[in-house]
User: Fold this.
Amino acid sequence: MTGKVLVTGGAGFIGSHLCESLCRQGRSVVVLDDLSTGSADNLQGLPVELIRGSVADPAAVQRAMTGVDKVVHLAALPSVARSVDRPLDTHHACATGTATVLLAAKDQGARVVYAGSSSAYGDQEVLQKHEGLREDPLSPYAAAKLAGELYCRSFARVFGLRVVVTRFFNVFGPRQPANSPYSGVIAAFSRALLDGRAVRIDGDGLQARDFTYVEDVVGGVVRCLDADSSGCETVNLAYGQSTTVQDVYRTLCTLLQEAIGPIPIAAPIHAPARKGDVRHSLADTSRAKTRFGFAPTVGFAEGLRRTFDWYRRQSGKSSSP
Assistant:
């Protein structure tokens, strides 16, 4: 075993933070990324091998898998809204791409951590979503990510592949793209406020999310990667804390005025609710804590402050005296 880790989608937001953590630990890291949503700049200064290619391309995946004994499969085409616009592209990247990666990992004998999504739960009446619930995807994105999970389960049963499915809940943090129609709400709000623009709130803003800071998610992924588990296990990686979009907006307004002074803030623009959007998303994290020792250290409030400070530095806005 070489100790070499393959990170698919490693040039993306979450992937680059994971690569940074793995490199700090002295691990050998290879990244497979087609740079369609990620950027090589996110890996600047990190001693990683970057292979540009799609996870749906067997030749590219095979090349990246050479000598690897652990894989974190993050590559996807994110965003519910994008999947409504481009369902076949989403399926190709998320479902076909996952099957391609799992097949290569099976041939290599590598352990896999798959980045699943809380969107698999849909909008069920149970408030705190636990892994024993039957999945109920509402969007093409959710369906494609769940298809990836089903491939993980089948490869574990048929081929003995060791897999952990980690379901993410609204991950946020530095380097998350902020200028796309598909941007995460915290990134989009931070950039708009710093630019002096009105933020756009889809729906009434009372939809609630288990927003989770990227550093804590990465810590959970690494624990799952290094654990001694067999078969396919599924765990939620989040805080078990619910925050509404309106609350996020109000907190970011406070952070803005704390940072650069009491400036006027444009009233938010309300748009129709998005198709396929989940109303409430809240994780039960007991299995991740019990089975893999998941122990977040940053938390939502501090993570939000760190994230806003990063966007403020990127915008060139100085702190108030």
Residues 192 and 199 are 6 Å apart (CA to CA). Residues 87-108 form the longest helix (22 residues). The domain at 173-208+242-280+299-315 is CATH 3.90.25.10 (UDP-galactose 4-epimerase; domain 1). The two ends are 54 Å apart (CA to CA).
